[in-house]
Sequence to fold (367 residues):
Amino acid sequence: MKVAVLGYGTVGAGVYQMLLDAPGMEAGPVLVRPGKAVESFMVSDAALIFGDPTVDAVVETLGGLDPAYSYGMRALEAGKHFITANKAMVAAHGLELAALAREKGAAFLFSAACGGGVPFLHNLALSAETDRIEAVSGILNGTTNYMLDAMQRRGLSYADALREAQSLGYAEADPTADVEGLDARRKIVLSADLAFGVNIREEDIPCVGISSITAGDIAKAKDEGLTYKLIARAEKNGRAVAAFVCPTLFPSSAPEAHTDGTGNLVTLFASRFGKQSFSGAGAGGYPTGSNVLRDCLDVADGCRSFYADSFTPCSVNLSGTQCKWLFRCMGEYFTRECSAREAFDAYESYRKDDPHALLARYAAEEE
Ligand code: HSE
Fold:
C-alpha cells in the first residue's frame, strides 16, 4: 500500500521514517509548505498527491481544522484511505469524514488522535463491539501531565513548569489548548463516541484545565497524600452520556499518581471485562507514528472505520454523576458532594468573584 503523508513536522517525519521499512508499505510523497520541498520525496502541490492514482492512502499530520479537513475530504473523494492523528478535526467533522469514506469504500481511521503512542482507541473500538463500556477516563494530555509532574515532584511554579514544557517543545507558544483542557476534551469526544456508539459535541462538555493550579494547591494536596492529574472522563448514565475535563486528586497509591512526564494513562470500565488500563508515551514522533502505522497496516488488512453509520448525535447530561469536589475561591478551600452539573455551575459562579478560583474532583475509590 503506497502511503502519502501530509506534513513533515515531528509526527509526519516519524511516520515517513517508519513507512520506509514497514512490511507491505511503500512511502509515497510528503506534502510540505511551498518553498520547503528540499528532499526529492517532498512536494508542495497537494494535487500531486490527490491526483496520483498510485497513492492508496493519505496520512494527515498537519493538525488544526484547516486545511486538514478539506484535504481529508479531497483524499476520500479521490477514493484514497484517510488516516489522521488530528483530534480537533475528528471531534468537529468525524461523522462527515466517516460518511464519505463509507460512500467511497475507503477507510477512515484515527488511532493516533488519542493517547499519542498508546494503542488505546483501537482497543476501545474492539472492546465496544464485545462488551458494554460503562466509562472511559484518564490522563489524555502529555503536556499538562509533564507540568503537573514537575510542580508535584520538583516544586516548580505553574509559570516555570509551563516555561520548561515550552522549552522542551511539549507546549506550543500558545499553550491554551493544552493547559485549558481543550486538547483532552477533543480526545474524550472521540473516546466517548467509540465507547458508547454516539456522537457528542465538544462544546457541550464542561472543561477546566490546570491554569488555576498553584504551587500552594499542590503543596496542600501533597500534605494530604494526594496528586493532581488532569482527567478527561466520559460515562454512560442510563441513556445519557456524561463527560467532563477537570483536575482530579488521586491518592499516591493510584497508577495515575505514578504516570510521570508526558505519559498518558487511560482506563476503560466495562460490564464484563471490568477495568482495563492502557499507558505509555502520550506524544512524540515515533510513538504517535507507530499508532498511525498500525492504522495503515489495519487498512491494508481490510479495516475501514471506527465510526459506524449507527452513531447518532447525543447530548451530554451531567446530572447523574455524583462526586466529591474541592473548590478554592478567594483563598478559601471547601469541599462539596454534588452532581458534576452542580459543581461546574458553582465553579462558574465562583469565578465571577475570583477569576483564579479552583475546581478539582476527588477520584472515587473504584477508579
Ligand atoms: N499536545 C498534545 C499533548 C500532543 O500534550 O498531549 C499529543 O496529542
User: Anything to note?
Assistant: DSSP finds twelve helices and 16 strands in the chain. The mean pLDDT is 96.
